[in-house]
Amino acid sequence: MDIPEKNKPTRNLALELVRVTEAGALGAGRFMGRGNKEEADAAAVDAMRLILKTVDMDGVIVIGEGEKDEAPMLYNGERVGNGGYPDVDVAVDPVDGTRPLAYGQLNAIATVAVAPRGTMFDPGPFVYMHKIAVGPAAKGKIDINASVVDNLNAVAKARGKQISDVTAVVLDRPRHKKLIEEIRSAGARLRQIPDGDVAAALMTCLPDTGIDILIGIGGTPEGVLAACALQAMGGEIQGRLYARDSQELALGQQAGYDFDKVLTMPDLVASEDVFFVATGITDGELLKGVKYFSNTARTESIVIRGLTGTVRWITATHRWDKLNKISAIQY
What we know:
Layout: H1 14-29, H2 37-52, E1 58-63, E2 79-80, E3 87-96, H3 98-102, E4 109-116, E5 128-134, H4 148-158, E6 167-171, H5 177-186, E7 189-193, H6 197-203, E8 213-219, H7 220-233, E9 236-241, H8 246-254, H9 265-268, E10 275-280, E11 291-292, E12 296-305, E13 310-319, H10 320-326
Parallel strand pairs: 1-3, 6-7, 6-8
Antiparallel strand pairs: 1-2, 3-4, 4-10, 5-8, 5-9, 10-12, 11-12, 12-13
Helix pairs in contact: 1-2, 6-7
């Protein structure tokens, strides 16, 4: 069956979308350390929505933000782009790491992913999932239903390491008390992070970061965003929806969601023709944060295209005297 020309993403949309995440980072970066998550998120949303309208695509937001943090929203079902081709699903998180941003901590990023229409997993109202993610060396070696020690041993073997040299990254949450104990008992190294598991998932694909595996319960939207990046970078993520209580479990089952099903890469994003972009807001191991100077600001972004596997790092300088003359918002 021939696919209509409008549905064929052939150009590198990521090179256009980087303007979106740069705008979000510039908008939110001013609020670093000011203690107000909602105000910072609103600034990123306003800036990203403005630029999204200009991108040549007909996009529908499948993975939006806001429900979980009660923040302003780029909401699920919102149409973005200028209505041109291609038809795409959009996943967006204006600030992955609202808390680190609000309190001047590491690893807050602005991020967007795009895939052909109908290929992104729609989690509906279910905002949490079990996750396990690895880089290319351990792809095909992990199993979310296996024990923690089995997965750590599998990663160690795939990467030619002793288990004592494997570094696992886990969100620092009370729900992970048992998981953390199991990682320590296995003899692996452990990095606990306050937020920002999209960046952590990507770091499993970048050897210089020293991160071998992401594991634990985190946001479903972040899982889909990470899947888009890992699809392009040759890594792997598996997920399984997580119900916070019996009422949420019953609601999901009535809606046809299977909380026992392992969500593999094709379930989370069923296309290699994906685009992923992230721009640093605060400094982190993945990306440098926004730096402000007298009349300029500097951003750093990662720009990924699935079809080619190309990963670009873009450092941009933004001039306020020019930008604020033409922008509908003041950065």
